[in-house]
Amino acid sequence: MFPYAFGWLDMYAVMIGIGIISCFVFLEIYYRKQKVRKLLISYFEILGTLAIGLGLLFAVLFQNLYDFIENPETYSWSWSMTFYGGLIGGVVLFLLGYFFVIRKKFGPQMRNLLTIAPACITIAHAFGRIGCFLSGCCYGIETDSPLGVLFPGHNHAVLPTNLFEAVFLFVLSGTLFFLSLKINFKYNMGVYLVSYGIWRFIIEFFRDDHRGEFIPGLSPSQFWSIIMIVGGIVFFFIYHFVEKRIVSKKEAQQEN
Question: Which domain range does residue 90 map to?
Answer without folding.
Answer: 4-249
